[in-house]
Specification:
The chain has 208 residues and is α+β, with helices and mostly antiparallel strands. Helix 1 packs parallel to helix 4.
């Protein structure tokens, strides 16, 4: 099972996923989306929190209120962290998560440490946690199926964009060809109006 929370401090609202245990965490690690951003308490055990980013948003431009919601939720889902002040939360794009065969279930590393960001949570905000808990939904999704469906839609989108690009290129090529033909026709018309010295000589002979 996994918990879904709705972060409604932005429009449209954004979904936050929380793995209930290490096995759900493992599924989220394996079948997360490239758009996801992963959150975890630094150097302490905690649930794995995933922010499902809307299209066009990157880890660098997460709205501050959304970032605060995720950080508070991460702290609240840490047995040790929830009791402490000044807790560091690390977060990074899902694509930066590194999983190797020698790691325990639910354990994860990073491909590039420079892509890992940190935010400090001074203390728990009951107001934020209570607001998020009101949106809490528990489900048992098939993460693999959801990821494959997401990838299928992405391939169709890319295919449509590629087709649109090819159509635009063909239209541009057609326009260039028509412009070249027009210029060629204009040159032909100008040449028809030109006369040579031989033409003038013939006129003089006729006059004589």
């Amino acid at each position: 099972m996994v918990f879904y929370f709705t972060c409604n401090v932005t429009s449209p609202p954004i979904t936050i996923y929380v793995g209930r245990d290490k096995y759900e965490n493992e599924d989220l690690i394996k079948w997360g989306w490239p758009e996801d951003v992963w959150f975890h308490v630094d150097k302490l055990s905690s649930a794995h929190i995933y922010l499902r980013m809307p299209e066009g948003m990157t880890v660098d431009d997460i709205p501050p209120d959304v970032l605060t919601d995720c950080a508070q939720l991460t702290k609240a889902n840490s047995i040790q962290g929830c009791k402490m002040n000044d807790v560091a939360i690390v977060y990074t794009p899902w694509s930066n998560l590194k999983k190797t065969g020698d790691m325990d279930v639910g354990q994860v590393g990073f491909h590039k440490n420079k892509l890992v960001k940190r935010i400090m949570v001074e203390k728990k905000s009951n107001e934020i946690i209570n607001r998020l808990n009101k949106t809490k939904v528990e489900e048992d999704p098939n993460f693999q199926q959801l990821r494959e469906e997401r990838d299928r839609k992405e391939r169709l989108k890319q295919k449509r964009e590629l087709q649109k690009m090819k159509t635009a290129e063909k239209e541009l090529e057609k326009q260039k060809k028509e412009e070249e033909e027009a210029r060629s026709y204009d040159r032909l018309m100008v040449e028809d109006k030109m006369t040579s010295n031989k033409d003038n000589a013939d006129l003089e002979d006729d006059f004589m």
